[in-house]
Amino acid sequence: MCGRYAITTAPEAMRQLFDYREQPNFPPRYNIAPTQPVPVVRLAQGARQFALLRWGLVPAWVKDPKSFSLLHVARAESVNDKPAFRNAMRRRRCLLPADGFYEWSEFGERKGPFFIRPKAGGMIAFAGLWETWMGPNGEELESVAIITTPANRRLGAIAERMPAILPPESFDLWLDCGKVDAMTAAAFLVPAAEALLEAYPVSTAVNRTANDSPELIAPVSPQAPPASEPVPVKRARKPADDRQGSLF
Fold it and tell me: What architecture (CATH level 2) is domain 5-217?
């Protein structure tokens, strides 16, 4: 599974790419993990808005978030059906800017992390869903989940799933829930083009969420065949959890 990603682009460059009004200032992050605040881009009063939300969606109908399973991803195949996601798919779609993401893969008896990023450089945008949870005492929590698709052929050597990556020309249609219905928007949730991404092995230091430095995305000597072509992969399979679906 994969549950980490990185944002290394400077704030102003990210603002120009995603065209939101706010001018946030934030440091690069090399090891973003679930439950942490993450930047999202959403539509507010007809304009794009930058916001920080907790990664791990809490549906509005949940009574106690502390006892609810963490929903940091949503499967594209079921976002229009599952109660945890279908309202957000209709009304609260968003983008999550990223410079790359991590995936762990097993080759024989070894298991290690890979960093996956655009081959040509630059940022990508994950498709996401956000929600607002209101507590009985007036407390409020805004949270988000990343939508995933089956992995494309190239990344299939590493993982079974990958984030749904939206091209810039789809941003407006994805964000405009008033004009684009959920079923139409679901057509954008497809595996990324084979030529878009590259993957390479990185240090196991990324395993600890406390580590957050540029060294985490530096290539290391491969412990296994590269991800340029599919190879047999040995993975332990876990039973599906209908409450949250499979992770990346």
Answer: Alpha-Beta Complex (3.90)
